[in-house]
Amino acid sequence: MRILIVEDEPKVASFIRRALEEESYAVDVCSDGIQGRDLASEVDYDLIILDLMLPGLPGIDALKAIRDAKVATPILILTARSKVDQRVKGLDAGADDYLTKPFAIEELLARTRALLRRASGDSTGLLQVDDLILNPTNHEVTRGGQRIDLTSKEYALLEYMMRNSGRVLTRPMIAEHVWDLDFDTFTNVIDVYISYLRNKIDRGYDRGLIHTVRGSGYTLKLTDA
Amino acid sequence: MRILIVEDEPKVASFIRRALEEESYAVDVCSDGIQGRDLASEVDYDLIILDLMLPGLPGIDALKAIRDAKVATPILILTARSKVDQRVKGLDAGADDYLTKPFAIEELLARTRALLRRASGDSTGLLQVDDLILNPTNHEVTRGGQRIDLTSKEYALLEYMMRNSGRVLTRPMIAEHVWDLDFDTFTNVIDVYISYLRNKIDRGYDRGLIHTVRGSGYTLKLTDA
DNA sequence: GTCTTCGACGATCAGAATACGCATGGTGAC
DNA sequence: GTCACCATGCGTATTCTGATCGTCGAAGAC
User: Fold this and answer.
1) Is B115 helix (H, G, I), strand (E, B) or coil?
2) How far is CA A211 from CA A127, A203, A218, A221, B157, in A?
3) Does the beta carbon of A81 lie under 8 angstroms from any beta carbon of chain B?
4) Nucleotides of C under 7 A from a protein CB
5) Which tens digits make up the pLDDT trace of B28-46?
6) Which residues contact B125 (CB under 8 A, 6 or more apart)?
7) Strands, E, within A102-153: which ranges?
8) d(C-alpha A64, C-alpha A90), whole Å
């Protein structure tokens, strides 16, 4: 989740930034409307927090510019308590929400959650090793941008390995996590599925991501130089 | 456009009512939370304005009850300026916006416009995947402009899938959201309803929107190239 | 140190067994 | 009649088995 703050008062900006970063959002700050507008169209933010009282390009114009650029990111505007008119214009210009200064930081966080939840396509939680990417929410797997179709066992195995990439995973560990508890130890299904995965994921790459650790198990990682 | 006001102070209620009626909205007023909750689930409002400081059922509980009743209508809550905590809880409980008393009437109108626009026109409110459009406020579903009639179970399933389009939805997830809690796991109702939906939505299209994810569940999305 | 041998371990394949998803028809409630 | 739900049976993708083949590396010979 990446958030842009457009705010000229350094104190306020860093105050908000810290609060958001504590909630583990990625935060960018810029201090004027022109820069804000440009950043907003270059970077795909999840939320923009925009102070309407800015030097240079007035906030309301920056807001309109962003919306004119077809940026659909939710926008939360900050205004002075007294400027009712400004807020009204802001909402009509396409802001999704506003806060009046001064505000309680807790409130800002709540509004942030609300806006993000509303807009959520939830793309967080991507697993990535080298150019292999796995999206747990839609079970989509790609390598180098190329989609890879996996059966559900193959997928489960790969997800487990990606969540533990770098570690050596023994057969019992894999069995426990990917297969049932009453897993028959005297079978080679795991080897078979590793083989299936290699075919679908590492085939054609001279440096595969799935490595055999003889005598122990398997590991998924970037081949070290 | 029909709006419900839940407000116990007669003066405030009629003040808001008059302002909204001047903007030619249809306005209903009730004075307590229980009645408000019932009305909200009986009538298909476009917006609910809910005072959090009510006698009887506290406003926050009324709010939760309304959301629990699967009412998707945008809700604007009114709170006292000082009660930051209440506002935060309100937003987290599913309110879409709030105003602090006392407020300028002009501001209420602006927020009303913003919420209604959001609910009907663009980002939030209307659910859309490809040319399939679902309007939660009136349960209307169209594909390619063509109206589609759904039974209520079919509708509930589709709405859930559209709200989570792109994600893989497992049978337990679907059961929990669309069926009761005491759902019998050993039946194939879900499969059957998926089949019904496919017949009504994807029939005639060579690229359907409902996809089976073998071994996991189903997902609703645009077929990727 | 290097080469060869040998056994253990891992990879792979094809076919069998299984589980899964889907269509369809039927039942009961309203 | 309509709607929600259930049960059966079928075709097929997926999973698993078992056998064979390949490979790694330790140990001994030189």
Assistant:
1) helix
2) 18, 13, 6, 8, 43
3) no
4) 9-14, 20-25
5) 888 888 888 888 877 777 8
6) B74, B118, B119, B135, B136, B137
7) 127-129, 132-135, 140-143, 146-148
8) 9
Q: How far is the CA of A207 from the C1' of C6 (A)?
A: 30
Tokens of A164: 């533990």
Q: Which of B109, B111, B214 faces A152 most closely, judged by CB atoms?
A: B214
Is residue B111 within 8 Å of B99, Cβ to Cβ?
yes
Q: Under an 8 A CB cutoff, do B84 and A106 touch?
A: yes
Query: What domains lie within chain A, and their CATH numbers?
Result: 2-119 (3.40.50.2300), 127-220 (1.10.10.10)
Q: Look at residue B184 and give its three-state secondary structure.
A: coil
The encoded tokens of residue A96 equal 């999704």
Q: Does B111 touch chain A (CB under 8 A)?
A: yes
* Segments in chain B below pLDDT 70: 1, 22-25, 54-57, 80-88, 102, 104, 106, 117-126, 136-138, 176-177, 180-184, 224-225
Tracing tokens 């300028």 back to the chain, one arrives at: B104
pLDDT digits over B76-105, tens only?
888 765 566 666 677 777 787 777 776 767
